[in-house]
Amino acid sequence: xxxxxxxxxxxxxxxxxxxxxxxxxxxxxxxxxxxxxxxxxxxxxxxxxxxxxxxxxxxxxxxxxxxxxxxxxxxxxxxxxxxxxxxxxxxxxxxxxxxxxxxxxxxxxxxxxxxxxxxxxxxxxxxxxxxxxxx
Amino acid sequence: xxxxxxxxxxxxxxxxxxxxxxxxxxxxxxxxxxxxxxxxxxxxxxxxxxxxxxxxxxxxxxxxxxxxxxxxxxxxxxxxxxxxxxxxxxxxxxxxx
Lengths: 135, 97
Hints:
The complex is a heterodimer.
Chain A (H helix, E strand, L loop, with lengths): L1 E4 L1 E4 L2 E10 L5 E8 L6 E4 L8 E12 L7 E14 L9 E8 L5 E2 L9 E5 L4 E6 L1
Chain B lengths: L18 H10 L1 H8 L2 E6 L2 E6 L2 H11 L10 E5 L16
Antiparallel strand pairs in B: 1-2, 1-3
């Protein structure tokens, strides 16, 4: 198991981790993602689709209905990508192949399927520390 | 992908000297950046916005024009600037006025 340190922010409160998304040429594209325990699947901006390697899954285009009081829905493209989690100490997980939704958004949310559901997650907002442990 | 001087990707395990500082900087200055640029894609290098666009490609094109010609390669971070949580934009309840 590799322990990845999280970036803890308090104003506004947010917990982030770095993702490295694999590209077709073997290089990687680094972005900061919000760790979102309310997200079923990792969400990425569709604007990244020209810059990362992905494989569209069978159902392809999906409509996502947001839970909670917002009652909003949005269209997304469901795909598989390969990524690593990383922190500023140089720690990296092994490669993760995961479902993602590409949507018309600037939000980058790290969700459960294939990632958080295979991990241990610890956050202490009082002490400003947190980590994800995952293979 | 791009073959320009603006290098937005990296080799396996590679971290440019500016990377972590730039992620910290953009987070600290996010509110001001949103006010100034609005929702967009930003390329940030050494704590400066070098490119802005609706897409990554547009931001790279803008950065090509903004980066001094004597720089052979720059390694900006990419940041998708947007309001964080729609829920948290709170407006007065007019029914109670």
